[in-house]
Amino acid sequence: MNTFITILEFALLFGVLVFLHELGHFIMARINNIDVEEFGFGYPPRMVKLFTRKGTIYSLNWIPFGGFVRMKGETGETMEAGSFAAANPWRRFAVLMNGPIMNLLLGLILLAVLFTRTGMPDYSRVEIQSVAASSPAALAGLQSGDTFKSINKVEITNISVVSQVVSANLGHEIEVTVLRNGEVLTVKMTPRANPPQGEGALGVVITNPVVPTNFLQAIPIAAQSTLDQGKQLILLPYQMIKGQISPEEGRLVSVVGIYDIFSRVQTEDRAQAAANPQNAGLNTLYFVAVISIALGYTNLLPIPALDGGHILFLLPEMFFKKKVRPQLENAVHFIGFALLMVLMVVLVVNDIVNPIVIP
Questions:
Q1: What distance in Å separates the CA atoms of residue 198 and residue 227, rounded to the nearest whole number?
Q2: Which residue, 37, 155, 157, 259, is most buried by CB atoms nearer than 10 A?
């Protein structure tokens, strides 16, 4: 029964993300006076026509997953007034962009909500999370909860400064100043050049303390997290070639693999909810935010059949007034769509035969 509910929840969440994406296209088409012939809830075949408003058919379809927007002349078959093909290329660009933008905005908002609930790391402060027994830090009297102020008179403003100063003084005595319960303490210790496995030179695990925040304060760091996810997507091929991440870490996954992750997230959330009801749903909230952002960025990739692929064909017209023949563009998108379907089947089979390893 739990598996059925999890599958239902996953389909609903993923469907909402796809629907929101299509809603973004719909809203921007309306703003730019492009006629929308049909706005569908779910995918065809059509179950029922709900109503017609301002020339747009609103339909309910049999496949209850996401939605779709069918604009007049979206494949270039007509240049009539109000058609997508007849619109200014910059207006078409806005329509194509607004689907991914809606997903990115949702992800950003969900991350901000998450940070509001959990607090945000204070990157300007470095706190000791734990101290290994018999380590230099333990022998000097450092404790969990101490906050670094300086090392050898160098002010500690972030975790990198700690690493740099300690690494530069391996085997040499250093002076460490910490703040403990409002009191400033200074101790001396010698960083180890060859610490035991699993321990650092000082024998401490350091972190940035989490501080309470409100929604507005959380928006900038949520925006930065959204941008960072985009950078990771762009750098992924380079990092795999350089061996900076393993093939398993960088592998593409299908909806089956995404479901496996979602199922694990749900299991962890149920355990956390039982232990601490205040933390209920945090993992799911983060999962939905990350998937929404990934959906937005993926659709911006310059791949035929995706929004980014359509935008790629718009660029000559936008900047050089040279419009690509609709027949050529449609053929490329058709081939791209077919290849994407083949890739999806391959990924589904791989995720079934070789399930992803979730730490």
A1: 32
A2: 259
Q: What is the DSSP letter of 34?
A: -
H-run or E-run covering 264: helix 255-275
Structure-block tokens of residue 42: 């779910």
CA–CA distances in Å: residue 104 to residues 10, 173, 261: 19, 49, 20
Cα–Cα distances in Å, from 318 out to 73, 93, 97, 173, 323? 18, 9, 14, 63, 9
Sign of the dihedral defined by the CA atoms of residues 146, 152, 158, 162, in that order? negative
What residue has token string 């240049």?
Answer: 79
The predicted structure's pLDDT at residue 359: 65
Closest CA to 265 of 192, 356, 171, 343: 356
Give the dihedral sign, CA 264/210/205/172.
Answer: positive
Helix axes 307-320, 89-118, angle to 10 degrees: 130
> Helix, strand, or coil here: 196?
coil
Q: How crowded is residue 143: how many other Cβ atoms within 10 Å of its Cβ?
A: 15
137-192 residue pLDDT tens: 999 999 999 999 999 999 999 998 999 999 999 999 999 999 999 999 999 999 99
CATH 2.60.40.10 fits 127-211, yes or no: no
